[in-house]
Structures are given as structure tokens and as C-alpha cells.
Amino acid sequence: MPGFGYLLLLFAAAAGVYLYAIWPRTTRISDVMQYNHAMFAHRGYHNKEKLIPENSMAAFQAAVAEGYGIELDIHITKDGKLAVFHDDTLERMCQQSGSVESYTFEELRRFHLSDTSEKIPELAEVLAYVEGRVPLLIELKIPGRNLAVCGASYQALKNYKGKFMIQSFNTMGLYWYRKNAPEILRGQLSSNLTKSEEKEPYLLRFLIKYLFLNMLGRPDFISYKLKDLPNINVSLCRALFGTPVAVWTLRTDSALEQGREYNMRIFE
């Protein structure tokens, strides 16, 4: 039966490579589990009708007042500051052209968020306000290959006394933290990235969708779009490694209830 033995060996090798690829970091599970059942307000506790735009100081103040954790996004500006802003471009929120990265922070502060008096905050401003009262879930926005946001965010966060974790769709951001700041908890963001056309190559989107780039980032948790679950490799990470999972973005009572199955819920 030499042929069967060879096939068995080949199968075992393939299974080993497969598991190695999706393997998360498992030594910090208990640290992530301190956030078990945590509710994070997506881009702050914003409310369009109350003129509280997303990722604004007003939204963060409202989240702290309700005792919710805060999920927020950061870009690095032309002059190396950390702007709290979600989109890669300014059109939707500020009715301006161009990317966040193409402006200095002083230039960005001239713009208003969603026709309100609120302006784009700097991460340092948010940290000084929150001051550890609620946990933070900080998404690194890396629209290109420039990883400067990683080093800048680490410098801003390394002496922060409150609880926080970082996450990103861009696995190279997690890889940077793995190599340079392994003490900080990190999460791989993902969803069904192959269902629509994106500027990134299909293969890259496929690898992130199925968590095969965990071998680079070795995340402490997975942050996945609830509507795109179940996903076989998310399920395997949970079942085999005990990996905590955050789900986003929950906008209805039924979604909130469905999200109870997971460790953390990111809601609007």
C-alpha cells in the first residue's frame, strides 16, 4: 500500500500547511477575553438626527456617557498626525476632494463633518478625553503600502493607560505590530471580500477573507462582518484555537441578538 501511505503523508502535509496559515496567536486569549460580551459603538455613538456625526468628539462623548466601548478609525496625515476618520477620501463626510493622507492635520481641521460644527479629531485628543473610561478598538487605515500609521499609532498608544486593541484589514499592519509591539492586542478584520469588485487583487482579498494571512499577522482575535458568517476558517479558529471573535456592524435588534453568539459586538 505504498500509494496509500504517500497520499496519507501528502494529506497530512497539506493539513499542516493549512492550519499553519490560519493559526492565530493563542498566548493572549485570556487578555482578549476581558472584553467578552463588550459592546463597541461603531465610529462612536453617532446619531445623524441629533447632528452627532461618526468619528467625532460628540460621538465619543455620547459613547462614554452610555458606558459603551468605542470603535474608531485612524489615518496618518501628510504631516504625520493621526486623524480619526473612516473613509479613504473626504467626499462623503466633508464634501471635499482628496485623501486624508494628502492633507496636513491643520488643513483637515478646516473642514466640518456632515455639515455640523464637529471637526476631524486627532487621536491624541480622543485618548486625552476617554482617559481609560471605556475600552477602545482602533482600526488602522492603510489605503496603500505606507505603514507609517503603525509606528505613529504605537508612539501615541504605548503610554496610554486605558484598555485598547488595534485591528486592520491590512495584514501588514498587524505584522508590523507583531514584530515591533507584540505586547499590544491585535485583530484581523475581514468579510466576504471577494463578492464585489475592489481595487485590491482578487487573490489578496481571497486570502484575507479566509484568514490565510494569519500566518503573517498572527492575530489575537478576528473581527468579521456578521452578515458574512459563517465562514469555515473563522469557525475553525474558534473551535480549534479558542480565538475570540468580534462581529460588525450590528444595526438591528435581531442582529444584536444574533451577535450574542460571539465575544464582542460592534453596533450602530
3D structure, described in words:
- This protein has an eight-stranded parallel barrel with strand order 1-2-4-5-6-7-8-9.
- It contains twelve helices and nine strands.
- It is globular.
- Helix 7 (148-157) links the parallel strand 4 and strand 5.
- By secondary structure, the protein is α/β, with parallel strands linked by helices.
- The chain has helices spanning 2-22, 29-32, 57-66, 91-94, 105-108, 123-130, 148-157, 171-180, 202-209, 214-217, 232-241, 253-258, and strands at residues 38-42, 69-76, 82-84, 136-140, 164-168, 186-190, 221-225, 245-250, 264-267.
- The protein is 37% helix and 17% strand.
- The protein has a single domain (27-267), classed as Phosphatidylinositol (PI) phosphodiesterase (TIM Barrel).
Quick overview of this protein structure:
The chain is α/β, with parallel strands linked by helices and 268 residues long. It has a single domain (27-267), classed as Phosphatidylinositol (PI) phosphodiesterase (TIM Barrel).
| Second rung of CATH, namely the architecture | Alpha-Beta Barrel
Q: Could you list the spans in which at least 5 consecutive residues all have pLDDT below 50?
A: none
How many β strands by DSSP? 9
Number of helices: 12
Structural class label: alpha/beta
According to CATH, what is the topology? TIM Barrel
Q: What characterizes the major β-sheet?
A: 8 strands, parallel, barrel
- Give the C-level CATH assignment: Alpha Beta
Strand order of the largest sheet: 1-2-4-5-6-7-8-9
* Rg: 19 Å
Give the helices and strands as they follow along the chain: HHEHEEHHHEHEHEHHEHEHE
CATH superfamily: Phosphatidylinositol (PI) phosphodiesterase
Backbone shape: globular
Number of domains: 1
Binned, the helix content reads 25-40%
Give the CA-CA distance, first to last residue: 59 Å
Strand content: 15-25%
Instruction: Average the pLDDT over all residues and give the rounded result.
Output: 96
